[in-house]
């Protein structure tokens, strides 16, 4: 199963692609950043990000696109551009009938390091280790996109759907499952306002 | 010149189309609401809104798409969906090389009623009068989309570009120009954070 992770942004939009095989074996396929110039108008920036994402999705033909869930509480200066970039990634996937999964940064951190408040460098190191890379993925900030893809591959819900039972979860996975449940509740409440 | 106004939203996205002729003569062409069901996933909702907007843009072939500018300070529950819907409208226009104009709600209210804090009913009445309609446009909340199209047609900057001089502005237009300048400053500061 090919998973394409998206760390959304209007200036820099991280894209990371992995393959999830049997026995939770994960392999690195691709990592990159899709950019738009801050010097052009917002509509042209969104078009550049959309075209870049479409190219990645068509090149790597993922089975799932895993996108960071954006919250209104995030950095006010960038949250709207981030939400719009996430929206374009959802659109590009939906246009191709590719399922979309949304994961919070906390879920991704927990899935990868066992700590929902992990630092950036810890995530980069764990992504490097999990994917058996010789060096840290570059560009460095695209590690978050790989983290979102890995998070989706390792999600407890998926493991349970696959026939595993809850007692087989590691403590980190159990913690992750709880964070995920909380996020689902918050999401439900937010959606009701929409 | 055909102007298509968009009042962005994830559940209801208003679309209003007018023609702006010589001597600021404005004619009504179309008003409607593009919807998405709250019962499907966010990616499918965005796809429905995008497809609906594309259909309107291809049907009415506007020279400009005038979209409400979304601010991070807006209602927290809906601001992200609103920003995403606005992003899709910008994308659909940019894909067709149609210029995009962003106008704040205050600019639209000022342009139409001369009062930046006008009530919804005042805007609906003025839209009805300006476009010489026999009855108020339905659905009622799509009047905002017509207001955004009218706002773009009546913008002082456009009038000035058209060869008019600043002293020819009405007091309402002058007030509008000042609100617009303020919004441009705020936009500049917000963009620097992106």
From TrEMBL, chains A, B:
Catalysis: reaction(s): Endonucleolytic cleavage at a junction such as a reciprocal single-stranded crossover between two homologous DNA duplexes (Holliday junction)
Transmembrane segment boundaries: none
EC numbers for this chain: 3.1.21.10
Phylogenetic lineage: Bacteria, Bacillati, Actinomycetota, Actinomycetes, Bifidobacteriales
Alphabetic keyword roster: Cytoplasm, DNA damage, DNA recombination, DNA repair, DNA-binding, Endonuclease, Hydrolase, Magnesium, Metal-binding, Nuclease
Name of the protein this chain belongs to: Crossover junction endodeoxyribonuclease RuvC
Biological function: The RuvA-RuvB-RuvC complex processes Holliday junction (HJ) DNA during genetic recombination and DNA repair. Endonuclease that resolves HJ intermediates. Cleaves cruciform DNA by making single-stranded nicks across the HJ at symmetrical positions within the homologous arms, yielding a 5'-phosphate and a 3'-hydroxyl group; requires a central core of homology in the junction. The consensus cleavage sequence is 5'-(A/T)TT(C/G)-3'. Cleavage occurs on the 3'-side of the TT dinucleotide at the point of strand exchange.
Cofactor(s), by name: Mg(2+)
Subcellular location: Cytoplasm
Organism annotation: Bifidobacterium stellenboschense
């Amino acid at each position: 199963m090919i998973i394409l992770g998206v760390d959304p942004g209007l200036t820099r939009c991280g894209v990371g692609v992995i393959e999830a095989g049997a026995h939770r074996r994960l392999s690195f396929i691709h990592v990159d950043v899709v950019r738009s110039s801050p010097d052009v108008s917002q509509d042209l920036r969104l078009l550049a990000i959309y075209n870049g994402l479409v190219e990645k999705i068509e090149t790597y033909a993922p089975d799932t696109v895993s996108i960071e869930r954006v919250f209104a509480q995030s950095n006010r200066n960038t949250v709207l551009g981030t939400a719009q970039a996430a929206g374009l990634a959802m659109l590009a996937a939906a246009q191709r009938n590719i399922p979309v999964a949304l994961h919070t940064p906390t879920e991704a951190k927990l899935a990868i390091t066992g700590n929902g408040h992990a630092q950036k460098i810890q995530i980069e190191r764990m992504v490097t280790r999990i994917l058996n890379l010789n060096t840290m993925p570059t560009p460095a900030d695209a590690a978050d996109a790989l983290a979102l893809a890995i998070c989706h591959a390792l999600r407890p819900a998926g493991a349970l759907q696959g026939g595993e039972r809850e007692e087989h979860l590691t403590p980190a996975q159990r913690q992750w499952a709880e964070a995920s449940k909380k996020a689902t509740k918050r999401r439900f409440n937010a959606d009701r306002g929409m």
